[in-house]
Amino acid sequence: PNGVSLSFNGGKDCVVLLHLFAAVYYKHFQDSVDIPNIQAVYITHPNPFLEVEEFVKECVDRYGLDLITIKGPMKSALAKYLEQRPNVQAILVGTRRIDPHGENLLEFVPTDPGWPPFMRIHPIIDWHYSQVWEFLRILNIQYCVLYDLGYTSLGSIDNTYPNPDLRNPSQPSGYDPAWKLADESKERCGREKSTSSSTSN
Prior knowledge:
Blueprint: E1 4-7, H1 12-28, E2 38-44, H2 50-63, E3 65-71, H3 74-84, E4 90-92, E5 108-110, E6 119-121, H4 129-138
Helix pairs in contact: 1-4
């Protein structure tokens, strides 16, 4: 268990991944007296949403996370994380095909040369947007409140806003909830495109 960690940022995909991993993890330890907390790393954006920060804290308590929070950029943050957790050999990531740089990823991919060395594992790489929300809603899994306000993909306050495809003046927030988005290709329409390559790995 100390060789595996989880990348967690409070987003919907990470919540699905965390829930699945926690189910397997705690079943594995069901006959144990002492259950180690799930190792996780949270690499933060500049100017994160307060709602995201609060939700991450809730998940630490709900799922029993040994969470280390480190400011980005990604490459240096991962190096710092492995300095603190040198036994970690693999990190589970909630990336899906529709995400930037996700189209050609395999389920198991070592990090690129020059990056901190570990195995990247993508258990939900082939999940669709609708499947993510079906999973969360049918199992009544708690998620960040921003998704109920029209946000469909979460970054920082500087580059994220409600998805214009969910605009609905009849709603108190002015937007339908994220799960009502019908076209998954529009999932990131509430995100400004980044010019940075710091997260490309």
